[in-house]
TrEMBL record:
Occurrences of domain 2Fe-2S ferredoxin-type (ranges): 2-106
Protein name: 2Fe-2S iron-sulfur cluster-binding protein
Family: Belongs to the adrenodoxin/putidaredoxin family.
Source organism: Hydrogenophaga bisanensis
A Pfam family reported for this protein in Swiss-Prot or TrEMBL: Fer2
Cofactors demanded by this protein: [2Fe-2S] cluster
Amino acid sequence: MAHITYVEANGQSTTIDLADGWSLMQGATTNGIDGIIGECGGSCACATCHCYVDDMLAGVLPPPSQGELDMLENVVAERRPNSRLACQIKASPALEGGVVTLPECQE
C-alpha cells in the first residue's frame, strides 16, 4: 500500500491509501478525485487520465511504454516531461509519498 497525494487543478489536495496493484487512475476515480476521467477504464486507449508526476515518482517509475507515449501525443492539456497516464502507474510501496498533479482539462 502507498499513500499517494493527488493535487487537483484548483489546488485541492487529497491523500489516499492505494492498494498494491491498483492504478493511480483507479485510486482517483474510486475516491472521487476531480480531474481524472479514465474513459477507457484503464486500457491505455483514451489519454483522459493524463497527470504530472513529481520528481520522486519520476525517479522510481519505469519508463512509459511505447503505447503510453503514443497516447500522450493525444492529451488535451500541456504535455510536460513528467506527463504520464495514471492508468499505467500501478501502486507499490516504492510509490509511498508520491504526488500526482492533475491538469485543468482532460477532454
